[in-house]
Amino acid sequence: MKRVAIIGVGHSKFGVRADATYCELAFEAVKEALEDAGITQKDIDISIVGSVGNRLYDMYPAPLVNEYVGLTSRGPLRVEAACASGSAAIFTAYNTIKSGFAETAIAIGVEKMCEVDTPTSTAIGGRGCYLWEFHMFGTSFAAYYALFATAHMNKYGTTEEQLAKVAVKNHYYGAKNPKAHFQREITIEQALKSRVICWPLKLYDCCPISDGASAIILASEDKVKELKIQDPIWILSIGYSSDTGNYTRREDYTSIKSTRIASQMAYKAAKINPEDIDLAEVHDCFTIAEIMAYEDLGFCKKGEGGKLIDEGQTWIGGRIPVNVDGGLKAKGHPLGATGCSMIHELTKQLRNEAGNRQVPLKNYLALAHNVGMTGQYCYVTILGR
Amino acid sequence: MKRVAIIGVGHSKFGVRADATYCELAFEAVKEALEDAGITQKDIDISIVGSVGNRLYDMYPAPLVNEYVGLTSRGPLRVEAACASGSAAIFTAYNTIKSGFAETAIAIGVEKMCEVDTPTSTAIGGRGCYLWEFHMFGTSFAAYYALFATAHMNKYGTTEEQLAKVAVKNHYYGAKNPKAHFQREITIEQALKSRVICWPLKLYDCCPISDGASAIILASEDKVKELKIQDPIWILSIGYSSDTGNYTRREDYTSIKSTRIASQMAYKAAKINPEDIDLAEVHDCFTIAEIMAYEDLGFCKKGEGGKLIDEGQTWIGGRIPVNVDGGLKAKGHPLGATGCSMIHELTKQLRNEAGNRQVPLKNYLALAHNVGMTGQYCYVTILGR
C-alpha cells in the first residue's frame, strides 16, 4: 500500500480577522503551503476543503475557495465533521492518494467565525438540535464541557487549579506563536479569577471564536521521489470514531469514548504505543477537554490527567509536551482550520523548525487529536519522520 | 488494487414528504439497503453522509443521521458537493475501501427541501454568492440553465420542442416508478404551454424541489466473497472534475466542461467507450442539462443532442436509454440523495430487477452523471456486472 507524506504546510494568522475574507484566509494558508512544498497549483491533483461553512459567504464553500486560490478543476467536494472538519479533510485527501485517485492532494481547512448571526456562531454557541438534548434542553458547548468537568472533579478529584494550569501552559506557548489568536501569557490567579462562563469553566478555560485557515499538502511516495523531497514527514496512521450525541446513552461523562477508540486504532495501525510519542496536539476546546485527552490518549492513567499537568509533564521538557503552539485555547479554534493547524504544528516540530517552541525529539513521532462536537467525531493522526 | 462492489441499495419515496423527518427519510433508504444486502448495521465499517444540509434540522447532519439509523461510531464525516453530494459520498466511501480503511461502507444521501426559509431553498433558488456573478447579478439556477439553453439554441438550432421531449420522456418513466415525485405522464403540448420560468425554460423543463434519501452499500472484493454474494455490481471507475463558477472564464455556454473531463477520466479508467454503455442516469436538473449531457458524455456528437431525443434514442429500445427512472425531472432532486438515487437505479437495472422499466442489457455497463451547481462539481461513475 502506498505511503503518504506531508510535503507542505501553511497557516494564516488566527484571530479576529476583520481584514480578510473567507477566501483570503484560505489563500494565506494555501500560498504558504505551496511555497513550503516548492510547488505550484498545477502540481496539485485534488483539493479537499474542510469547513463547517457559513452561508453568509456561500452555501457551497469549496468551489469558491478553490477558484480563489487557483485550484479550479481540482475540487471534488467539501467535507464537514464539525470542529474536526480539518482532520476530516486530511483523512479524505489521504484516502484519495491511498486509493490511487491522486498523487498529490491539498487539505484546506478554513473558517470565518467572528461575524455575528452566522451558523458558525450558532454552531459553537449551541449544539443546535434538541433531539438528543431532551434531558438537558438548551445545553451549549460550554455547558457540555462543564458537565464533563464536574463529573471529572467528582470522580477523580480534579481541581479548578488544574484546569487553570492547562490555560496557563497554552497561553505561555501561544505567546511564542506569531500565528496565535492570543499572544499573551496569563497567571493561574488571572485564570481562576476570570468570570464564570459555566461553572467550573471560566473565561480562560474556553477557547476563543477565531477566524483562520491552514493548508496541508500530501503526496504519494512516488511523487515525493519525483519531486526529490528529502526526508519528508509521513502520515503513519489515522484513527477515527464517533460517539453518540444522546447523552443518556453515554457510558460516563469523564471520558470521550471516541478518543479512546480512534487513538487505539491509530496506535495499532502505526504499530506504536502512547509512550513512543514525542509531542501531541490535542483538542482543548475547553481546559477539561485537554485533561480528558491526556487520559483517553493513554499519556497517563485514567483520572491522573490533573496530576500530569500539576507535574508539568505536558510542558516542553516534560514526558509528553502537549499543545506547544498554544492549542485551541490560545492559538484559536476556527473550526475547519483546527485539524490542519495541528498537522501544521507537528510537521514543523518533526522537521525541527519550531524555533523557540521546539520540542526535543527522540522517536520523531507526533500525534494530533481532533474532536468534533463532544465526541460525535474524533480523528487521531500519527505522524513520523 | 482492491475492487469495490455495490452490495445493497435503498431508496425512500421522493416527493413532498411532510410525513417524514430528515432522519426518517434516511432511515427509509438505509433500512432498504441493509435488507437488500442481507446484512445489518454491525456489518457496516464506515458511514458517509452526503447532504447539503439544513440548519433548521441540524448544523451537523451526519452524527444525527448515523445515530438515528443505528450507525453511531461509524460516521467520520459529512461530504457536500452541492447537487452532487450523493456522488461525493459514494466517491468518499469508495476511497475508504480502496485505501484499506474499511471493508464495507455506506453512502447515505439525504435532503429535506420542502420547508421554506431554509438554506436548501436558498441554495436551489439562487446561486448564493455574487462574487462570481458580477456581470449577471441575481442569477438563479433556472436563469443559468436558461442561458445554456439559449446559447445551445442559437449555436445548434436546438428547439423548445426538443427540450419538451426530454420532459415527456422523463415523466413517462417517472409514471412507472413508484419512488418518483411525479408519477404522471405529460404531453409535449402540456410542456410547451406550461408557464415560463425563465425563457426558454418552462415549468416542465425544471426539476421539482423534493425531499428524499437513498443509500448505497459498498464492499471490498474480499468482503463480497466472505458474504458469499454472487454476481454483485462493481464500481468500475469514478471520474470527477470541477469548472469555474466565474462565467466570464467559461469557454462557452453550450457545454459543461467538467462533464467532459470527468467522463473522459471515467471511460479511460474503466477502459471503455461511450458506445459500450447500456444505459445512463444523467443530471437533468433542467431539460437542457440532459441534452448537453448527451453530447458531453459522448452519446452523440456536439450539437446533436436535440436530434438524439427527436429520434427517440434515449428511450428504452433506443441506442442509449437515459433516465428511465424519471430523472431529476420527474423522480425529483433532493440534492444529497440524487447521486445515490442514480446508483440505486443503475444497480437495479444491471441486476435485471427494474421490472416494467428494464433496459435490455448487452455489455452490462451503466453510467451515472451527477453535476453540482452548473458544473462546479461533476462526478461520472461507471458500473459493471
Polypeptide structure, described:
- The structure is a homodimer of 385-residue chains.
- In chain A, a hairpin with a 4-residue loop joins strand 10 and strand 11 (377-384).
- The longest helix of chain A has 16 residues, at 22-37.
- In chain A, helix 6 crosses helix 10 (287-296).
- Chain A has 13 helices and eleven strands.
- Chain A has 385 residues and is α/β, with parallel strands linked by helices.
- Helices cover 36% and strands 17% of the residues of chain A.
- Chain A has a nine-stranded mixed beta sheet, sandwiched between helices.
- Chain A has two domains: 4-119 and 210-233, Peroxisomal Thiolase, Chain A, domain 1 (3-Layer(aba) Sandwich); 138-206 and 236-384, Peroxisomal Thiolase, Chain A, domain 1, CATH 3.40.47.
- Chains A and B meet through helix 2, strand 3, helix 3, helix 4 and strand 8 of A and helix 2, strand 3, helix 3, helix 4 and strand 8 of B.
Short description:
Two copies of one chain form a homodimer. Chain A is of the alpha/beta class and 385 residues long.
Show the helix and strand layout.
The structure is a homodimer of 385-residue chains.
Chain A: E1 4-11, H1 22-37, E2 46-50, H2 61-68, E3 77-80, H3 85-98, E4 104-111, H4 119-125, H5 141-156, H6 160-174, H7 188-193, E5 196-198, E6 201-202, E7 212-220, H8 221-226, E8 233-241, H9 257-270, E9 279-281, H10 287-296, H11 305-310, H12 327-331, H13 335-350, E10 365-372, E11 377-384
Parallel strand pairs in A: 2-3, 2-4, 9-10
Antiparallel strand pairs in A: 1-7, 1-8, 4-7, 5-6, 8-11, 10-11
Helix pairs in contact in A: 3-13, 6-10
